[in-house]
Amino acid sequence: DGGITQSPKYLFRKEGQNVTLSCEQNLNHDAMYWYRQDPGQGLRLIYYSQIVNDFQKGDIAEGYSVSREKKESFPLTVTSAQKNPTAFYLCASSKLLNTEAFFGQGTRLTVV
Amino acid sequence: EDQVTQSPEALRLQEGESSSLNCSYTVSGLRGLFWYRQDPGKGPEFLFTLYSAGEEKEKERLKATLTKKESFLHITAPKPEDSATYLCAVQARYGGSQGNLIFGKGTKLSVKP
């Protein structure tokens, strides 16, 4: 079955450590996105990528980094520079930029 | 500034009690409006895309409509399995957030048997 796989589902890290969240899709979609979801807030865009080897900052990119070396993969690194990293992170993909997006099941990151 | 507001924040219904969720928006030219369903601890599930005022789409007990200022998600004779948070997102044609989806905070729907 085609879909988007995020791993791990839960992630715990100590403050000051970098952590990488995985996102893989087998939908043959060109565009991929990372969103952050906090209680009581709408989804906020961190980074997006239209094609391989190209990505753009979203609204809250500070403290995050991404890469897009393969069409299928769009990993997100949460760096120690991110001041409040504890959140639910969602990866999504779409055939073209900002057409119907399909989401993974999310990674809940807790920094202690 | 482009903005999406969903109301109510929470809605409790009895099974079979029809109602509507509202999504009002302010954007620099609407390119598209999207509805998603999100279950607790999971990623959003795509429901509908609407592009122009007057457009309607249906899926089982759900019907989405669009005007120039807002969209409604009508739920007819809901069942407990319709309980979820419903998210609305808009895509602006112009401006600083051009092309990017702007999400509302969602409406949490609870349907009691």
Strand-and-helix sequence of chain A, N→C? EEEEEEEEEEE
C-alpha Rg of chain B (nearest Å) = 14 Å
Low-confidence stretches of chain A: none
Most extensive chain-chain interface:
A-B, 24 and 24 residues
Cα gyration radius of chain A (Å): 13 Å
Q: What proportion of the residues of chain A form beta strands (DSSP E)?
A: over 45%
pLDDT averaged residue by residue of chain B: 93
What does this structure look like?
The complex is a heterodimer of chains A (112) and B (113). Chain A has no helices and eleven strands. Chain A has strands at residues 4-7, 10-13, 19-25, 31-37, 44-49, 56-57, 64-66, 76-78, 87-94, 102-103, 107-111. Chain A is globular. In chain A, strands 2, 4, 5, 6, 9, 10 and 11 form a seven-stranded mixed sheet that branches. Chain A is mainly β and 112 residues long. Chain B is mainly β. Helices cover 0% and strands 58% of the residues of chain B. Chain B has no helices and eleven strands. In chain B, the strands form two sheets. In chain B, strands 2, 4, 5, 9, 10 and 11 form a six-stranded mixed sheet that branches. Chain B is globular and about 45 Å long. The mean pLDDT of chain B is 93. At the A-B interface, strand 5 and strand 10 of A face strand 4, strand 5, strand 9 and strand 10 of B.
List the helices and strands and how they pair.
The complex is a heterodimer of chains A (112) and B (113).
Chain A lengths: L3 E4 L2 E4 L5 E7 L5 E7 L6 E6 L6 E2 L6 E3 L9 E3 L8 E8 L7 E2 L3 E5 L1
Parallel strand pairs in A: 2-11
Antiparallel strand pairs in A: 1-3, 3-8, 4-5, 4-9, 5-6, 7-8, 9-10, 9-11
Chain B lengths: L2 E5 L2 E5 L4 E8 L3 E9 L6 E6 L5 E4 L2 E5 L3 E6 L8 E9 L8 E3 L3 E6 L1
Parallel strand pairs in B: 2-11
Antiparallel strand pairs in B: 1-3, 3-8, 4-5, 4-9, 6-7, 7-8, 9-10, 9-11
Give a quick rundown of the structure:
The complex is a heterodimer of chains A (112) and B (113). Chain A contains no helices and eleven strands.
